[in-house]
What we know:
The protein is α/β, with parallel strands linked by helices. Helix content is 38%, strand content 18%. Helix 1 (11-27) packs parallel to helix 11 and helix 8 (195-205) packs parallel to helix 13 (307-324). The model has no long low-confidence stretch (mean pLDDT 95).
Amino acid sequence: MRILLSRTDRVGDLILSTPAIASMRRSFPQAHITLACSRYNSVVVDRSPDVDELALLPSDVKPETFGARFRDVDLAVGLAPRDVDHRIVAATRAPRRVGYTYRTRYLARLMLRGKLTRVVLSDADPARSERNPSQPVLHEVDQVLAVAQAAGARTLVHDLVLPVTQADRDAVADLPPAPVVVQLGRRWTEAGSTAESCVALFRELRALGRPLVATYADDGRELAARVAAESVADAVLGDLPFHVWAAVFERAACVVTVDTGATHVASAVRAPTVVIFEDKWFRLASQEWSPYRVPNAILRKPPDESDASLRASRAGIVVAVASLL
Protein backbone atom coordinates (compact mmCIF):
# COMPACT_ATOMS: atom_id res chain seq x y z
CA MET A 1 0.00 0.00 0.00
CA ARG A 2 1.24 3.49 -0.85
CA ILE A 3 0.10 6.52 1.15
CA LEU A 4 0.70 10.22 0.52
CA LEU A 5 0.26 12.69 3.39
CA SER A 6 0.43 16.41 2.73
CA ARG A 7 1.12 19.38 5.01
CA THR A 8 3.03 22.24 3.43
CA ASP A 9 2.37 25.16 5.81
CA ARG A 10 4.10 26.22 9.03
CA VAL A 11 6.53 24.48 11.36
CA GLY A 12 4.16 24.54 14.35
CA ASP A 13 1.29 23.09 12.31
CA LEU A 14 3.42 20.19 11.15
CA ILE A 15 4.58 19.48 14.71
CA LEU A 16 0.93 19.23 15.73
CA SER A 17 0.36 16.80 12.84
CA THR A 18 3.05 14.36 13.98
CA PRO A 19 0.59 12.33 16.12
CA ALA A 20 -1.59 11.84 13.02
CA ILE A 21 1.46 10.83 10.97
CA ALA A 22 2.49 8.36 13.68
CA SER A 23 -1.10 7.05 13.79
CA MET A 24 -1.00 6.36 10.06
CA ARG A 25 2.27 4.47 10.50
CA ARG A 26 0.89 2.36 13.38
CA SER A 27 -2.33 1.68 11.53
CA PHE A 28 -0.64 0.79 8.22
CA PRO A 29 2.72 -0.66 9.34
CA GLN A 30 3.54 -2.23 5.97
CA ALA A 31 2.64 0.81 3.88
CA HIS A 32 5.10 3.09 2.13
CA ILE A 33 4.33 6.55 3.52
CA THR A 34 5.42 9.69 1.69
CA LEU A 35 4.99 13.11 3.28
CA ALA A 36 4.62 16.12 1.03
CA CYS A 37 5.90 19.20 2.83
CA SER A 38 7.74 22.43 2.15
CA ARG A 39 11.46 23.07 2.37
CA TYR A 40 10.66 25.41 5.27
CA ASN A 41 8.74 22.96 7.47
CA SER A 42 10.63 19.80 6.49
CA VAL A 43 13.00 20.28 9.47
CA VAL A 44 10.20 18.96 11.68
CA VAL A 45 10.12 15.56 9.97
CA ASP A 46 13.58 15.03 8.51
CA ARG A 47 14.22 12.59 11.40
CA SER A 48 10.72 11.15 11.54
CA PRO A 49 10.57 7.41 12.28
CA ASP A 50 7.08 7.32 10.77
CA VAL A 51 7.81 8.48 7.22
CA ASP A 52 9.55 6.53 4.47
CA GLU A 53 10.08 9.45 2.13
CA LEU A 54 9.85 13.24 2.12
CA ALA A 55 8.67 15.05 -1.00
CA LEU A 56 9.41 18.78 -0.93
CA LEU A 57 7.02 21.02 -2.86
CA PRO A 58 9.16 23.33 -5.04
CA SER A 59 8.14 26.99 -4.85
CA ASP A 60 7.91 27.22 -8.64
CA VAL A 61 5.76 24.11 -9.20
CA LYS A 62 1.96 24.19 -9.14
CA PRO A 63 0.37 21.93 -6.51
CA GLU A 64 -1.56 20.06 -9.23
CA THR A 65 1.64 19.28 -11.12
CA PHE A 66 3.36 18.18 -7.94
CA GLY A 67 0.43 16.00 -6.83
CA ALA A 68 0.26 14.31 -10.23
CA ARG A 69 3.66 12.75 -9.49
CA PHE A 70 1.89 10.47 -7.02
CA ARG A 71 -0.67 8.81 -9.28
CA ASP A 72 0.43 5.43 -7.90
CA VAL A 73 -0.78 6.02 -4.34
CA ASP A 74 -3.74 4.17 -2.86
CA LEU A 75 -4.58 6.81 -0.26
CA ALA A 76 -3.88 10.56 -0.17
CA VAL A 77 -4.54 12.63 2.95
CA GLY A 78 -4.39 16.41 3.36
CA LEU A 79 -3.39 17.21 6.93
CA ALA A 80 -4.00 20.96 6.52
CA PRO A 81 -7.22 22.83 5.67
CA ARG A 82 -5.44 24.70 2.87
CA ASP A 83 -6.08 24.94 -0.83
CA VAL A 84 -2.49 23.95 -1.64
CA ASP A 85 -2.77 20.65 0.19
CA HIS A 86 -6.25 19.98 -1.17
CA ARG A 87 -4.94 20.47 -4.70
CA ILE A 88 -1.98 18.14 -4.13
CA VAL A 89 -4.24 15.41 -2.74
CA ALA A 90 -6.83 15.81 -5.50
CA ALA A 91 -4.20 15.60 -8.24
CA THR A 92 -3.09 12.14 -7.10
CA ARG A 93 -6.45 10.72 -8.22
CA ALA A 94 -6.04 8.13 -5.46
CA PRO A 95 -9.07 5.89 -4.87
CA ARG A 96 -9.35 7.47 -1.40
CA ARG A 97 -8.63 11.17 -0.95
CA VAL A 98 -9.26 12.68 2.49
CA GLY A 99 -8.92 16.19 3.87
CA TYR A 100 -10.56 18.81 6.05
CA THR A 101 -11.90 22.32 5.89
CA TYR A 102 -13.87 24.70 8.11
CA ARG A 103 -17.59 24.23 8.52
CA THR A 104 -18.34 27.85 7.66
CA ARG A 105 -16.30 27.86 4.43
CA TYR A 106 -19.26 26.91 2.32
CA LEU A 107 -17.64 27.54 -1.06
CA ALA A 108 -14.61 25.44 -0.16
CA ARG A 109 -16.88 22.63 1.03
CA LEU A 110 -18.75 22.72 -2.28
CA MET A 111 -15.55 22.65 -4.35
CA LEU A 112 -14.04 19.84 -2.31
CA ARG A 113 -16.94 17.55 -3.12
CA GLY A 114 -15.37 17.05 -6.54
CA LYS A 115 -11.79 16.83 -5.32
CA LEU A 116 -11.90 14.57 -2.28
CA THR A 117 -13.76 11.39 -1.43
CA ARG A 118 -14.09 12.32 2.27
CA VAL A 119 -14.18 15.78 3.86
CA VAL A 120 -13.91 16.30 7.62
CA LEU A 121 -15.37 19.55 8.97
CA SER A 122 -13.76 21.74 11.62
CA ASP A 123 -15.60 24.18 13.90
CA ALA A 124 -12.46 26.31 14.38
CA ASP A 125 -13.98 29.52 13.07
CA PRO A 126 -12.81 32.79 14.72
CA ALA A 127 -16.09 34.72 14.50
CA ARG A 128 -18.14 31.72 15.58
CA SER A 129 -15.89 31.17 18.61
CA GLU A 130 -16.31 34.77 19.74
CA ARG A 131 -20.09 34.63 19.32
CA ASN A 132 -20.39 31.30 21.15
CA PRO A 133 -17.72 31.23 23.86
CA SER A 134 -19.22 28.13 25.45
CA GLN A 135 -18.73 26.09 22.27
CA PRO A 136 -15.47 24.13 22.53
CA VAL A 137 -12.97 24.02 19.68
CA LEU A 138 -10.86 20.93 19.07
CA HIS A 139 -7.14 21.26 19.58
CA GLU A 140 -5.35 21.08 16.24
CA VAL A 141 -3.77 17.75 17.24
CA ASP A 142 -7.21 16.21 17.81
CA GLN A 143 -8.60 17.78 14.64
CA VAL A 144 -5.86 16.26 12.48
CA LEU A 145 -6.22 12.94 14.29
CA ALA A 146 -9.89 13.02 13.25
CA VAL A 147 -8.71 13.35 9.65
CA ALA A 148 -6.39 10.35 10.13
CA GLN A 149 -9.32 8.37 11.51
CA ALA A 150 -11.43 9.31 8.50
CA ALA A 151 -8.58 7.99 6.35
CA GLY A 152 -8.72 4.64 8.14
CA ALA A 153 -6.30 5.00 11.05
CA ARG A 154 -7.42 2.76 13.91
CA THR A 155 -4.38 2.89 16.20
CA LEU A 156 -4.11 6.47 17.42
CA VAL A 157 -0.96 8.08 18.80
CA HIS A 158 -1.30 11.26 20.86
CA ASP A 159 2.31 12.16 21.60
CA LEU A 160 4.09 14.80 19.53
CA VAL A 161 7.12 13.44 17.69
CA LEU A 162 10.28 15.55 17.52
CA PRO A 163 13.47 13.49 17.97
CA VAL A 164 16.27 15.34 19.80
CA THR A 165 19.66 13.61 19.84
CA GLN A 166 22.49 13.64 22.36
CA ALA A 167 24.50 15.67 19.86
CA ASP A 168 21.80 18.35 19.96
CA ARG A 169 21.92 18.34 23.75
CA ASP A 170 25.71 18.50 23.78
CA ALA A 171 25.54 21.64 21.63
CA VAL A 172 23.78 23.50 24.47
CA ALA A 173 25.44 21.77 27.41
CA ASP A 174 27.21 24.99 28.45
CA LEU A 175 23.93 26.78 29.11
CA PRO A 176 22.90 27.21 32.74
CA PRO A 177 20.75 24.31 33.95
CA ALA A 178 16.95 24.63 34.20
CA PRO A 179 16.66 28.21 32.90
CA VAL A 180 13.56 30.18 32.07
CA VAL A 181 13.70 30.47 28.28
CA VAL A 182 11.94 33.37 26.55
CA GLN A 183 11.37 33.01 22.82
CA LEU A 184 11.61 36.47 21.23
CA GLY A 185 9.59 37.45 18.18
CA ARG A 186 7.77 40.29 16.50
CA ARG A 187 4.58 39.79 18.50
CA TRP A 188 6.37 40.88 21.67
CA THR A 189 6.60 44.37 20.14
CA GLU A 190 3.06 44.98 18.92
CA ALA A 191 -0.68 44.81 19.72
CA GLY A 192 -0.69 44.79 23.51
CA SER A 193 3.06 44.46 24.03
CA THR A 194 6.13 46.62 23.40
CA ALA A 195 9.87 46.10 23.16
CA GLU A 196 10.33 48.18 26.32
CA SER A 197 7.86 46.02 28.22
CA CYS A 198 9.56 42.85 27.01
CA VAL A 199 12.93 44.06 28.33
CA ALA A 200 11.25 44.98 31.62
CA LEU A 201 9.79 41.46 31.78
CA PHE A 202 13.30 40.00 31.88
CA ARG A 203 14.14 42.23 34.82
CA GLU A 204 11.01 41.15 36.67
CA LEU A 205 11.62 37.45 35.94
CA ARG A 206 14.97 37.80 37.76
CA ALA A 207 13.03 37.78 41.02
CA LEU A 208 12.30 34.07 40.47
CA GLY A 209 15.99 33.24 40.93
CA ARG A 210 16.39 31.25 37.72
CA PRO A 211 18.86 31.81 34.87
CA LEU A 212 17.28 33.59 31.89
CA VAL A 213 17.93 32.57 28.29
CA ALA A 214 16.51 34.34 25.23
CA THR A 215 16.17 32.59 21.87
CA TYR A 216 15.11 34.16 18.60
CA ALA A 217 14.60 33.68 14.88
CA ASP A 218 14.64 36.30 12.12
CA ASP A 219 11.50 38.09 13.29
CA GLY A 220 13.01 38.59 16.76
CA ARG A 221 16.48 39.68 15.71
CA GLU A 222 16.06 43.38 16.50
CA LEU A 223 14.43 42.68 19.86
CA ALA A 224 17.17 40.16 20.70
CA ALA A 225 19.83 42.80 20.03
CA ARG A 226 18.10 45.07 22.50
CA VAL A 227 17.84 42.33 25.14
CA ALA A 228 21.54 41.60 24.69
CA ALA A 229 22.46 45.29 24.88
CA GLU A 230 20.51 45.69 28.11
CA SER A 231 22.27 42.64 29.64
CA VAL A 232 19.00 41.32 31.07
CA ALA A 233 19.54 37.69 29.99
CA ASP A 234 22.30 35.24 30.81
CA ALA A 235 22.40 34.10 27.17
CA VAL A 236 20.86 35.32 23.93
CA LEU A 237 20.83 32.66 21.21
CA GLY A 238 19.75 32.93 17.59
CA ASP A 239 20.27 31.22 14.23
CA LEU A 240 20.29 27.84 15.95
CA PRO A 241 19.79 24.63 13.98
CA PHE A 242 16.20 23.56 14.51
CA HIS A 243 16.86 20.54 16.73
CA VAL A 244 19.47 22.40 18.77
CA TRP A 245 16.80 25.05 19.41
CA ALA A 246 14.51 22.25 20.56
CA ALA A 247 17.28 21.03 22.87
CA VAL A 248 17.41 24.49 24.50
CA PHE A 249 13.69 24.18 25.24
CA GLU A 250 14.14 20.62 26.50
CA ARG A 251 16.68 21.97 29.01
CA ALA A 252 14.30 24.69 30.23
CA ALA A 253 12.45 24.76 33.52
CA CYS A 254 9.83 26.84 31.67
CA VAL A 255 9.43 28.33 28.21
CA VAL A 256 7.73 31.71 27.77
CA THR A 257 6.49 32.66 24.32
CA VAL A 258 3.93 34.58 22.38
CA ASP A 259 1.67 32.58 20.05
CA THR A 260 4.17 31.07 17.57
CA GLY A 261 5.50 27.69 16.59
CA ALA A 262 7.76 27.86 19.65
CA THR A 263 4.72 26.82 21.69
CA HIS A 264 4.59 23.49 19.89
CA VAL A 265 8.34 22.89 19.89
CA ALA A 266 8.19 23.29 23.68
CA SER A 267 5.28 20.85 23.92
CA ALA A 268 7.14 18.32 21.78
CA VAL A 269 10.09 18.27 24.21
CA ARG A 270 7.75 18.25 27.27
CA ALA A 271 8.70 21.70 28.55
CA PRO A 272 6.26 23.55 30.84
CA THR A 273 5.08 26.55 28.85
CA VAL A 274 3.54 29.98 29.32
CA VAL A 275 1.87 31.32 26.17
CA ILE A 276 0.65 34.87 25.70
CA PHE A 277 -2.07 34.84 23.02
CA GLU A 278 -3.26 37.84 21.05
CA ASP A 279 -6.31 39.65 22.43
CA LYS A 280 -8.14 39.24 19.11
CA TRP A 281 -9.58 35.76 18.56
CA PHE A 282 -8.29 34.67 21.96
CA ARG A 283 -11.08 32.13 22.56
CA LEU A 284 -10.28 30.28 19.37
CA ALA A 285 -6.48 30.45 19.47
CA SER A 286 -6.17 29.52 23.13
CA GLN A 287 -8.08 26.28 22.49
CA GLU A 288 -6.84 25.30 19.04
CA TRP A 289 -3.17 26.19 19.51
CA SER A 290 -2.59 25.78 23.25
CA PRO A 291 0.40 23.85 24.65
CA TYR A 292 -0.30 20.16 24.22
CA ARG A 293 -0.08 17.67 27.07
CA VAL A 294 2.43 19.67 29.11
CA PRO A 295 1.97 21.82 32.25
CA ASN A 296 1.05 25.25 30.97
CA ALA A 297 -0.46 28.66 31.61
CA ILE A 298 -2.43 30.54 28.97
CA LEU A 299 -2.54 34.34 29.11
CA ARG A 300 -4.18 37.01 27.01
CA LYS A 301 -2.47 40.15 25.79
CA PRO A 302 -4.06 43.37 27.05
CA PRO A 303 -6.23 45.24 24.53
CA ASP A 304 -4.02 48.35 24.78
CA GLU A 305 -0.45 49.38 25.57
CA SER A 306 -1.01 51.70 28.52
CA ASP A 307 1.54 51.53 31.33
CA ALA A 308 -1.05 50.00 33.67
CA SER A 309 -2.00 47.30 31.15
CA LEU A 310 1.60 46.41 30.38
CA ARG A 311 2.53 46.24 34.07
CA ALA A 312 -0.42 43.97 34.78
CA SER A 313 0.48 41.76 31.82
CA ARG A 314 4.08 41.36 32.98
CA ALA A 315 2.94 40.60 36.52
CA GLY A 316 0.63 37.90 35.20
CA ILE A 317 3.48 36.34 33.22
CA VAL A 318 5.78 36.26 36.24
CA VAL A 319 3.08 34.64 38.39
CA ALA A 320 2.38 32.10 35.66
CA VAL A 321 6.06 31.17 35.33
CA ALA A 322 6.39 30.86 39.11
CA SER A 323 3.41 28.49 39.18
CA LEU A 324 5.17 26.14 36.73
CA LEU A 325 8.62 26.11 38.31
